[in-house]
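Internal ticket - ligand job 392, pyridoxal-5'-phosphate:
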Amino acid sequence: MHDPHSVMFITKRPEIEMVSGKGSWLVDNNGKHYLDFMQGWAVNCLGHANPGMIAALESQARKVINPSPAFYNSPMIELADLLTKHSCFDKVFFANSGAEANEGAIKLARKWGKLHKNSAFEIITFDHSFHGRTIATMSASGKPGWDTIYAPQVPGFPKADLNDLSSVEKLINENTVAVMLEPVQGEGGVIPATKEFMKALRQLTIDKGILLIVDEVQSGCGRTGKLFAHQLYDIEPDIMTLGKGIGGGVPLSALLCTDAVACFEPGDQGGTYNGNPLMTAVGVSVIEQLTAPGFMEEVQAKGEYLKEKLLELSEKHLLDGERGEGLLRALKLGRDIGPELVENARTNNPIGLLINSPRPNLLRFMPALNVSRDEIDQMISMLDNLITQAPK
Ligand code: PLP
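stdout (structure tokens):
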């Protein structure tokens, strides 16, 4: 292992380097293999070293890497076409991270408010939501403690309670321009919006003449068993953001909206790497694979399979059940042993397991969407042993 002292400290990392990966497996510098049910926090939707993505990267790198965002390029156009063809949206702006796509959504909503809603600018967001780590997206997030770390916050993000329509209604006033939410709160602990709430929220925003923004950075791109998570609810939002899965592991994100909302003028929005062909070529490969016949049905079937297996585990160990959609699921542990299980899973020998605990009483699973049933069985069997050994 190289000496990492020049790498800025932001979090505790184990004393290993990850050196290679294939599908659901990662390998460290000691040759130890890890079954990866985290996949870079729901990023590598096609697993590690996906051949289609590698081919797209190699072939595009040989053509042109960055002609500048001042020009169109074909992967940018092709990916925008694919995304609009498979969704209710008409226009796409590409960026590099989920936070940046959400910043774009916030700017677009405020601009629309300036033009059409007497400069209304407030965007109602939700407690325990997560929208990114820029100052504006931290302000939009409802993560406990984030209101004070870099105070003062960006104003204009009153917080409602997920699945409580009256908490939203109470916050709407003449300054309100939009409501923004994750269809499934990911970092907050894998909490899906209910169908009833989402449908009522769409109707409420229509009635009040305000925008509905869905942050699908974590829940989009097939993660929930639908190409886009809001499709689970049969609703059509005004704005959607994508990140993580859209690049399958490379830095790519997107801001999508309907024609009625697309109101940026020259100078309003941009970014050095927006729509760069190297990343959008990978995005094309990802979306083509996700929309291949039968792929999404398999994600749904494997989501059900994982759910069944987690419920069996919960029954066996007297835990609190599970929740989630598709292949974004959480096991409710009933006690605060999540961080310990995550550590013991990673250090398990000879094979490690990579899982995550967004809350101490929860484990979260975000495997590759092409994970096999055998790999799910292997993960469950490792977890079974780890829970057996955990303190009661
Ligand atoms: N929005 C949601 C729902 C997320 O889960 C995340 C990251 O976890 C983000 C936004 C931020 O994405 P990024 O880390 O790519 O900026």
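Auto-summary: The first strand starts at residue 18 and ends at 22. The pocket of pyridoxal-5'-phosphate is lined by residues 41, 97-99, 102, 130-132, 182, 186-187, 215, 217-218, 243 (CB under 6 Å).
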